[in-house]
Design a protein that fits this description.
This protein is mostly helical and 467 residues long. It folds into four domains: 112-182, RNA polymerase sigma-54 factor, core-binding domain (Arc Repressor Mutant, subunit A, Orthogonal Bundle), CATH 1.10.10; 184-249; 262-389, no CATH class; 393-463, Arc Repressor Mutant, subunit A. It contains 22 helices and eight strands.
C-alpha cells in the first residue's frame, strides 16, 4: 500500500493562550504567584513592579555586625582570630554590646550534621577515629538514627566492627541525647543513661521488656519486673517524655511556615475576608514602552515585538484581577455559610460542596476547585486549607438526625470522647459508635476506625495507661 498525503477536517477543543494563562494563575498559591510574577517581569519589558518604597538594606556599611560570618569549622586559630578581629570594633568595657554580639552568634541555627561535626572536632581523637566519626555522622538520617548496619559500614570503611562500634559510642555521647542510635529502644536507652537512671525501673523495662512497653501491657510489666502498677505507670510516663526523634529539634529540619492566601477580618457588625497580597508584587504595564508602540518612527520589528509583549502583559494583569476576585468571592461565601465554624472551630463545620459555592458566586464548579487548590485562610481558630471548609457529609437516618453531619464534626466528637475517657478503660471503636449514637450521630464502627486512623489515635488496647 503506497503512502499518500491528503487533507482532512477535524474539530478540536483548544484553549486560547489567555485562557490557559488565567487558569494557571488561578491555581497558584500566594508564594508561587510571587515567584511567577517576578519571572514575568524579568522576561517582559512591558511589565513593571509598582513598589511604593524600596526595601531598606539590612546591613549598613558601618554596622560591625554585617561582617562576614565565620566558617562553621572547629575552634582553630583562624576562627579565633576572626572572632577577635570582629569583636575589636566594640568597646571592651561595653559588656552589654559584647553579650549582644555573642547572642547574635549563638542565635544562628546550625544544621543537625554541622552540630555533630563541631562536637566531633572538639574531641581528642586520632585521625583514624575522626575519619570513622565523620563517616558515621554522614550516615545518620534526619531523625538522628544510623542508616544501615555496622557490618555493612565496616566493610565499606575497611575496619573491624568493634572499632567502628567504639567510634559510634563516641557519637552517642553528643547532643542531642539519643543521637546515633540504631533503633528506638537504643535511642531511649541512651537518653535514660544520660539522665543518670541506669538500673532504674525505666532502664530495666527498656533493657529486658521493651516489647511489653511498646504494646502497653502494663500488667505483664508489673509481674515481670516485680513492681506495683503505680511504679510501672510512673516509669512508663518517664519514658514517654523522652524524644524518639532527637535529630528533629534543629530549626533547619522544621517545615517552612505557611503564608495564608486569605485573611479573615473580624469587624463589629460583620466579618470580612481580605487578600494577603502584601508579599505579591503589583505589576502594571509600562507607560514608556506603551508610548513607544504608538510612535510612528518605531521600527516595524520593534513594534511587532512590543505589541506581542503588550498583549501578554494585558492577559497577565487581567488574569491576576480575575484570580483575586474569584478568591475573595469564595472566601466571603465560605464565611457566610460557615459562621459557626468561626466561633466554635472545626467541630461546627457543616457539609458543603464546591458546586453549592460555585452556584452562589456565579462560577463553574471546576473554577472553584482550581481556585481553592493549595490555598489557605487565616482564621481566629488557626490557618486552614480552603479544602477543609468543604467537609463531606455523613448521611444520617431520619431517626438519628434531621440533616447530614460533616466528617469534621464527627472527628471532633471522637477526639473529645477519647480525651474524656478513663485511661484504665478506653473506649473501643464500637463503644465510640454507641456514644455518638447517643448524641444522635449514626456512624458505623468501620467509619470510626477510619477517622481514628486519620487523626493518628491509637486503638483502645494501646491507649490503656493504667491497670
Amino acid at each position: 500500500m503506497a503512502l499518500q498525503a491528503k487533507q482532512t477536517t477535524q474539530q478540536r477543543l483548544m484553549l486560547a493562550p489567555n485562557v490557559t494563562l488565567a487558569l494557571e494563575v488561578l491555581r497558584m498559591p500566594t508564594m508561587e504567584l510571587q515567584a511567577f510574577l517576578r519571572q514575568q517581569v524579568e522576561e517582559n519589558p512591558l511589565l513593571e513592579v509598582d513598589e511604593e518604597a524600596e526595601e531598606p538594606d539590612e546591613t549598613a556599611p558601618d554596622d560591625p555586625n554585617g561582617a562576614e560570618e565565620p566558617p562553621a569549622g572547629g575552634l582553630d586559630e583562624e576562627w579565633l582570630s576572626h572572632w577577635q578581629t570582629e569583636a575589636s570594633g566594640h568597646d571592651p568595657d561595653d559588656e552589654e554590646g559584647l553579650n549582644r554580639l555573642l547572642e547574635q552568634r549563638l542565635a544562628k541555627p546550625e544544621s543537625f550534621h554541622e552540630s555533630l561535626r563541631l562536637q566531633l572536632g572538639c574531641q581528642p581523637l586520632s585521625d583514624e577515629e575522626r575519619r570513622l566519626g565523620e563517616a558515621l555522622i554522614a550516615r545518620l538520617d534526619e531523625h538522628g538514627y544510623l542508616d544501615g548496619s555496622l557490618d555493612e559500614l565496616a566493610v565499606e570503611l575497611g575496619v573491624a566492627v568493634p572499632t567502628l562500634e567504639a567510634a559510634l559510642k563516641v557519637i552517642q555521647r553528643f547532643d542531642p541525647p539519643g543521637v546515633g542510635a540504631r533503633d528506638l529502644r537504643e535511642c531511649l536507652l541512651l537518653q535514660v543513661e544520660r539522665n543518670g537512671l541506669c538500673g532504674s525501673l525505666a532502664h530495666r523495662i527498656l533493657t529486658d521488656h521493651f516489647p511489653l512497653f511498646v504494646q502497653h501491657h502494663f500488667s505483664a510489666l508489673a509481674k515481670a519486673t516485680d513492681s506495683s502498677p503505680a511504679q510501672v505507670e510512673e516509669a512508663c510516663a518517664c519514658l514517654r517524655r523522652l524524644n524518639p526523634r532527637p535529630g528533629r529539634i534543629f530549626s533547619g529540619d522544621l517545615p517552612p511556615s505557611v503564608v495564608p492566601d486569605l485573611i479573615l477580618v473580624r469587624q463589629e457588625t460583620h466579618d470580612d475576608v481580605e487578600l494577603n497580597d502584601q508579599a505579591v508584587p503589583r505589576v502594571t504595564i509600562s507607560r514608556a514602552y506603551a508610548r513607544m508602540l504608538k510612535q510612528p518612527d518605531t521600527p516595524d520589528d520593534a513594534r511587532e515585538f512590543l505589541a506581542n509583549k503588550l498583549r501578554q502583559a494585558t492577559w497577565l494583569v487581567k488574569a491576576i484581577e480575575e484570580r483575586n476576585a474569584t478568591l475573595l468571592a469564595i472566601g466571603r461565601c465560605l464565611i457566610s455559610l460557615q459562621r459557626e465554624f468561626i466561633a466554635q472551630g472545626p467541630k461546627a463545620l457543616k457539609p458543603l460542596t464546591q458546586a453549592q459555592v460555585a452556584q452562589l458566586i456565579g462560577r463553574h464548579a471546576s473554577t472553584v476547585s482550581r481556585a481553592i487548590a493549595g490555598k489557605t485562610i487565616d482564621t481566629p481558630c488557626g490557618i486552614f486549607r480552603l479544602e477543609q471548609l468543604f467537609p463531606s457529609g455523613v448521611p444520617q437516618p431520619r431517626a438519628a438526625a434531621s440533616a447530614d453531619v460533616s466528617d469534621a464534626a464527627i472527628k471532633s466528637e471522637i477526639q473529645r470522647l477519647i480525651a474524656e475517657e478513663d485511661a484504665r478503660q478506653p473506649f473501643s471503636d464500637e463503644a465510640l459508635a454507641q456514644r455518638l449514637a447517643q448524641r444522635r450521630i449514626a456512624v458505623a464502627r468501620r467509619t470510626i476506625a477510619k477517622y481514628r486512623t486519620a487523626l493518628k489515635i491509637l486503638p483502645a488496647h494501646l491507649r490503656r495507661r493504667q491497670l
